[in-house]
Design brief:
With about 220 residues, the chain is mainly α. It has a single domain, classed as Mitochondrial carrier fold (Alpha/alpha barrel), CATH 1.50.40.10. It is built from eight helices and no strands. Helix 3 crosses helix 4. The two termini are about 20 Å apart.
């Protein structure tokens, strides 16, 4: 099939049989490891700015430059990395929840509602994966923010006990709905965009191959 014939395809979601045949524990583990490592790298590089953002949001009006200078002077460079342990540790269970749940949700959708459009399948399965991951994301994010706004040495055990004592176990899920509306649609859009671009790339590559073959046959 030529590129011109395929370029109208917006997003191809594999059939139920294709999904079952393509699934492997090793492949899923590799996906989770790759996603977790890339996420960890992103967290490590962006966490100082995230800490400054949180400090600015929870304190009196202050410029980013002044906030940075005050933190480094009072807490040292290490202060910029307060709270980084939580998102780093949560990367593996977070990504495991998202990608494993998304795969099986997509398989179920193709099985029980084959008439659903490809874009809907990707969005709903990705969003459902994010919903399951909120059980890890919300407590982790809360602990991270508490650590970032503390002035002394961070003790996660004490933070956990303090939150549980003051607000109960459900206190770990404060901000759940705000995180829900932030993450669930975001992951849905992520999977839709990923599949769309992947299939457009395949269509383009197939078109290039067809063009090359036609060029060779012409000579």
């Amino acid at each position: 099939m030529s590129y011109k014939q395929e370029q109208h395809i917006s997003c191809h979601v594999p059939t139920r049989e294709e999904l079952k045949n393509s699934f492997s524990v090793r492949g899923m583990v590799n996906t989770i490891i790759a996603a977790s490592l890339s996420n960890m790298a992103g967290i490590a590089s962006s966490h100082p700015l995230d800490t400054i953002k949180v400090r600015m949001q929870t304190s009196a009006k202050v410029s980013m430059k002044k906030c940075l200078a005050d933190m480094v002077r009072k807490e040292g460079v290490r202060g910029l990395f307060k709270g980084i342990a939580q998102p780093i540790v949560a990367s593996v269970p977070n990504n495991s929840s998202v990608f494993v749940t998304q795969h099986f949700a997509k398989t179920a959708l193709k099985e029980y509602n084959p008439a659903m459009s490809d874009l809907q399948t990707e969005f709903i399965s990705g969003s459902f994966g994010a919903l399951v991951a909120l059980s890890v994301v919300v407590p982790s994010d809360l602990m991270k923010v508490r650590a970032q706004t503390s002035s002394g040495k961070v003790n996660y055990s004490s933070l956990f006990k303090s939150i549980s004592r003051d607000h109960g176990t459900l206190g770990l899920y404060r901000g759940f709905w705000a995180t829900f509306w932030r993450d669930v649609p975001n992951w849905g859009v992520y999977f839709v965009t990923y599949e769309y671009l992947k299939n457009q790339g395949k269509s383009f590559a197939n078109g290039q191959e067809d063009w090359s073959e036609q060029k060779k046959s012409a000579f």
